[in-house]
Design a protein that fits this description.
There is one protein chain. This protein has about 280 residues and is mostly helical. It contains ten helices and no strands. The longest helix is centred in the last third of the chain and has 57 residues. The protein is rod-shaped and about 95 Å long. The two termini are about 35 Å apart. The relative contact order is 0.14.
Amino acid sequence: MATTQKTASPKKSQGFQGVKAAFWIIVVCFILAVCFFKYFLGNSDHIGPNGEVIDGNIWGTIYKGGIVVPVILTLLFTVIALSIERWLALRTAFGKGKLPQFVANIKAALNANDFAKAQELCDKQRGTVANVVGASLRAYKEMEGTHGMKKEQKIARIQQAHEEATQLEMPTLQMNMPIIATIVTLGTLTALFGTVVGMIRSFAALAAGGGADSQALSLGISEALVNTASGILTSWVAVVAYNYYSNKIDKLTYALDEVGYSIAQTYEANHAEEA
């Protein structure tokens, strides 16, 4: 009885499914950012004994961006980590073969009424689309053996099974995408905050007056510009990552809709004589 239940249940995607506890990714990225800021950027090779930047060293200049730099680095490291996480998860979701070819093969099998071939293709492909198609095929077979229902009701049941399977798979596809989208804005806002802090220091040094404060003035301007550049870079990476993976998800969703429509239309064509 247990074996029968296992066979009847929808197949689960095999492989990497994504990181649900993204909070710990952020924590790890924060620790790495602080260590990178303190032990690499603030290394004696970049910063002199009196806190000055050695020979205009770029890493030392970034270090002089101040306390905002580790925050921006945390955001940047988080985007990179989540981009890798999304790449692995979506690779699993798309399955082993090329998705357009899989969809074309499924439609060809459906047109030939070869449902055994369609199921075989799903078993080989795996991934999100294969799982949803497999659920729709099982609903198709179930409706063929069901009596006492109108054809429209059976088609609606097949479509319902397809939609339910899609809804079960979508959370895995969308997981952690809101975090990347949030960092798009946070990167810019953090850069603006760092810029304002640097400019405040610059104007404070300017207000103090005297040539001795010229170094403090330059440091404030440097801090402002470093934070601006770092924040813009973080937002740029986040925007590219978010749009890239959103496009991948849209392609997969379109493939799901296309196959689901084909299965419903195939049932309608094969049972045209039903009332």
